[in-house]
Each structure stands twice: as structure tokens, then as C-alpha cells.
Amino acid sequence: MNADSRFAALRRRMAESKLPALLVSDIPNVRYVTGFEGVFDDEANVACLLTLEVARIYTDSRYAEAAGEVAQGTPWIVKSPLENVYVGLCAELGEEEVFHIAMEASAPYGRFRFVSEQFRGRVEVIDDFVETQRQVKEAAEVARIAEAAEITDRTMEHVLSMLRAGMTEAEVALEAECFMRRNGAESVAFSPIVASGPNSSRPHATVTDRAIESGDFVVIDIGARVKGYCSDMTRTVVVGTASDRQREMYESVLEANELAIAAVRAGIPGSDLDAVARESLAKKGHAAEFSHGLGHGVGLEVHELPHVSARGRESLRAGGVVTIEPGVYVPGFGGARIEDLVVVEDGGCRVLTRSPKHLMEL
Ligand SMILES: [Mn+2]
């Protein structure tokens, strides 16, 4: 993916923030600032150095060939020192008389300490510098997320078509994972959540060997990854016939989901959107049972900026991709969540998740 416009925006923001040098080593941020695909993995030993003059990638021999190949025709110069990448980088900065660098707040403390010892100058720690820019997606990024969402919709349809009492949560999760991989996902965006019966009251339940029983709520939360970009969606169904209490819970969650989606538009703070869903659930007596934030940004990571919760005081921006996922959870009884992925637009939003949302009794 061409990163020229990102690059220009980063340098402009660095100049505005009086940051002469930026060190990027968080892997999703590396992928974003370089635009390189299929080069760095989670184990990568990599540091991208961006100043107003140079753009250099320091990495080890495992990644050097692949990085060198994709760097051709880009502003990036790839270096693969034999020693720790930060040793060479700090020495070169000293020679170039750069005495102020910024590191990501997400960097491990050991790395911060090492760089602080090696670098002869001021090491500043910055929060979310690249992440802030990542939250507004380019059209090509939205297209990949939409593709991932489409695979996820098809996966949900497939999984629900085979779901029945007697299957274990683990069997359903494996089926979802295989289907996504067979249908164009490079990987899952996260391990599927399949939470049945009493387990469904845990929003991030881990999959168990519990056999699904008739009368269970089953919460299925899945996401695919396509060319680096994630999707995220949740549906809740009842196996067998829903009880009145399950029906009431489900309809309350659905109404909160629909009201919140109707309120999404560029300019609304994430916290206001969260409040729309929370007030709707409170009117039905479920205030205490909606125990997490309404949603989150999705992109190169499944959870990224912006916050769509009480923490989200900043306004959503057009081009943001966020989830809307209210839920109601009652320990010992069960829970329901309905999660859709939407693209924030001026005056509204585009819903990427297409799976039906009426209460399904399977
Ligand atoms: Mn989510």
C-alpha cells in the first residue's frame, strides 16, 4: 500500500509538534508508516527512524531481504546492522547531530531504558502519535476492512447453519476459524468467542468444551484479517426456543444497537454515542448489566482508536471505522451482544456488517 500521503502527514505533524526524530517499532505502526506488506511479523526486530530529512529502517537479517525489495521506489532506506538495531541507530543520530527523539509509549520499558542509555540526547515518550493518524482510514484501507467484514458475514451464516445442541463451543469456534481461512482471510483477527448458556454472561469468554444445550443463548464474536486489516462482529442466537426473559434482553440490546448506529456521524464524541446506547438500556432496567464500552476503532488492529466509550471525549472523524456493540450480561443466566462494524461519514455512517439482526431461534 502506498504510504506517501501518510508520510507527508507524519512529517507535517512532527514539525508542528517540534519533534525532530520519531522512532517507530510497534509492528502495526511500522506497517502503517512504511506501507510494507508481508515483511514484518510480531517477532520482528525493527526500528523505523523518521526525521524531517531521512527515513530509515533498521532490522535484522531475517527481514532485510524482504524489506529491501519492497523499499525500492519508496523513501525508505533499509539497514541491517549485526548488533542490536538501536545501537547503530543511536550512533548514526549522534553523527547527524540529532539530540532529541520521540519513542512510542507502547514500547517496552527495557527498550526505552536501552535507547536512553545509548542515545546522547533527550528521549521523549509520546502517546498515540501514529495511532491518532491511523484512525482516519484511506479508501483502500476501508476496502480491505469491508472485504474482511464480508468474509465474516459469510462465516456467521455458515456457522449458524450448522449450530445445534450437542456441539461444543470449541467445535463451533474451529468451524468459524476454518471457514474464514478457506474463504479468503489470511488469518483470524482474534480467536473466535463462542460463549454458550451461562458462559455468555462473560463478554470476553474463552472458548470451552461445554456442549451447547437447548435454551442457551450463544454469543458468537468473530473477525477476519484481510491484507493486514481486521473485521469484528458479534451475533447472539438462542438454540431452541427463547424464553420471555431472553427475548426481552435481546430486543433491548437490538434497540440500543440500532439507536447508536442511527446516531453515528462525523463530529459526535465517542462518549456521546456510548451514552445513546447506555440510556436506551437504562430505560429497560439494564443499566448495570451493560458493563463495557459501546465500541472501538478497527483497522490494522482489532482494537484501536478511537474510543467509543465514556473515555472517548474526542469527536469521531469521517473515515473512522468503529464497532457498535452493546450487550447485556447477567451472571448465572447469560448474556447477549450485537456488534456491527460501521464507517463514520459526514452526517451518518455506512454499515459494513450485513448479517441479519432479528432474534434467531435455531
Ligand atoms: Mn469488538
Estimate the mean pLDDT confidence.
96
Which small-molecule ligands are present, each listed once?
manganese (II) ion
What series of H and E elements makes up the topology?
A: HEHEEHEHEHEHHHEEEEEEHHEEEEEEE
Q: Indicate the low-confidence ranges by residue numbers.
A: none
Q: Residue share in helices?
A: 25-40%
Beta-strand segment tally: 19
Principal-axis shape = elongated
- Total tally of structural domains: 2
| CATH-defined topology of the largest domain | Creatine Amidinohydrolase
Q: Please tell me the CATH architecture of the largest domain by its name.
A: Alpha-Beta Complex
> If helices are DSSP runs of H or I spanning 4 or more residues, what is the number of helices?
10
Strand order of the largest sheet: 4-3-2-1-5-6
Distance between the termini: 42 Å
Q: How would you describe the overall organization of this protein?
A:
With 362 residues, the protein is of the alpha+beta class. It has two domains: 4-134, 3-Layer(aba) Sandwich (Creatine Amidinohydrolase, Chain A, domain 1); 139-351, Creatinase/methionine aminopeptidase superfamily (Creatine Amidinohydrolase, Alpha-Beta Complex). It is 36% helix and 22% strand. The protein is built from ten helices and 19 strands. The strands form six sheets. A six-stranded mixed beta sheet has the order 4-3-2-1-5-6. A three-stranded antiparallel beta sheet has the order 7-10-11. Helix 5 links the parallel strand 5 and strand 6. Helix 7 (139-162) crosses helix 8 (169-182). Bound molecules: manganese (II) ion. The site of manganese (II) ion (MN) has 4 residues, from loops.
